[in-house]
């Protein structure tokens, strides 16, 4: 079953509660946290995640595009995240492992994320304990970028690793997801699709979510 995770990066932040309710038929709510350091943009932080948690029961899929994420795992878990994804490029492997351990202690689901420059094999030290792997099909930092076709091979390789070592792990793809690209990433092995403008840019949002979900 294909799951859809609308990205609130494409929502109207002046009407954020309204726009969260507009995607209530989706499976997850994708929340991008950017620090202006790991990526060249700043989005939102802990207070906004707390506010989101107060206005929805949706599963909060929180993507930490931040340096040294270990510092903030507990804080975001307490703010209401259901899953935290951290970038393998954001810290030393020993501290990535420690961050995953803290997620366990906090009772949140665990994910790692890969930039386009990162090999699928980078997930191997962690795969058996993960709930999700996130493959970026754009460079992280800004919404509305064009889909990178060469990342389809990374998705296929990640799917092979998941099937071999942890079949229960989900495979999420983020970046340039639209009706034309969704079938490609699903065919490559993804089962969770993050979509920004492909959802929030449509007049009939529930129909847009349903259309993406049917791509599988």
UniProtKB/TrEMBL annotation:
State its Enzyme Commission number(s): 5.1.3.1
Q: Name one GO cellular component term.
A: cytoplasm
MF GO annotations: D-ribulose-phosphate 3-epimerase activity; metal ion binding
- Could you list this entry's UniProt keywords, alphabetically sorted: Carbohydrate metabolism, Cobalt, Isomerase, Manganese, Metal-binding, Zinc
Q: Does the keyword Isomerase apply?
A: yes
Q: Could you tell me the Gene Ontology terms of the biological process aspect for this record?
A: pentose catabolic process; pentose-phosphate shunt
Parts of the chain that traverse the membrane = none
Q: Where does a divalent metal cation bind?
A: 30, 32, 63, 174
- Superkingdom is Bacteria
Is Metal-binding among the key words of this record? yes
Q: Which reaction does it catalyse?
A: D-ribulose 5-phosphate = D-xylulose 5-phosphate
EC top class, as a word = isomerase
Catalytic center residues: 32, 174
Annotated residues for binding of substrate: 7, 63, 141-144, 174-176, 196-197
> What pathway, per the record?
Carbohydrate degradation
Pfam families reported in the protein's UniProt record: Ribul_P_3_epim (PF00834)
Q: Which cofactor does it need?
A: Mn(2+); a divalent metal cation; Zn(2+); Co(2+)
Cofactor binding notes: Binds 1 divalent metal cation per subunit.
Which NCBIfam families does the protein's record reference?
Answer: PRK05581.1-4, rpe
Sequence similarity: Belongs to the ribulose-phosphate 3-epimerase family.
Report the protein's function.
Answer: Catalyzes the reversible epimerization of D-ribulose 5-phosphate to D-xylulose 5-phosphate.
- Quote the protein name from its UniProt record: Ribulose-phosphate 3-epimerase
What organism, scientifically named, is this protein from?
A: Flintibacter faecis
């Amino acid at each position: 079953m294909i799951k859809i995770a609308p990205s609130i990066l494409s929502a109207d932040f002046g009407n954020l509660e309204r726009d969260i309710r507009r995607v209530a038929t989706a499976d997850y709510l994708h929340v991008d946290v950017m620090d202006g350091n790991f990526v060249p943009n700043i989005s939102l932080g802990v207070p906004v995640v707390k506010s989101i948690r107060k206005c929805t029961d949706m599963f909060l899929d929180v993507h930490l595009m931040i340096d040294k994420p270990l510092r903030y795992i507990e804080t975001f878990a307490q703010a209401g995240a259901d899953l935290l994804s951290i970038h393998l490029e954001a810290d030393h492997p020993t501290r990535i492992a420690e961050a995953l351990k803290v997620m366990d202690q906090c009772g949140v689901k665990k994910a790692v994320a890969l930039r386009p420059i990162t090999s699928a094999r980078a997930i191997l030290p962690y795969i058996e304990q993960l709930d999700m792997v996130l493959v970026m099909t754009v460079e992280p930092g800004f919404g509305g970028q064009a889909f990178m076709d060469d990342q389809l091979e990374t998705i296929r390789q990640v799917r092979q690793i998941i099937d071999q070592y942890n079949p229960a792990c989900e495979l999420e793809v983020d970046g340039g997801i639209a009706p034309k690209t969704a079938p490609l990433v699903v065919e490559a092995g993804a089962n969770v699709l993050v979509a920004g403008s492909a959802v929030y840019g449509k007049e009939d949002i529930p129909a847009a979510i349903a259309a993406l979900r049917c791509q599988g």
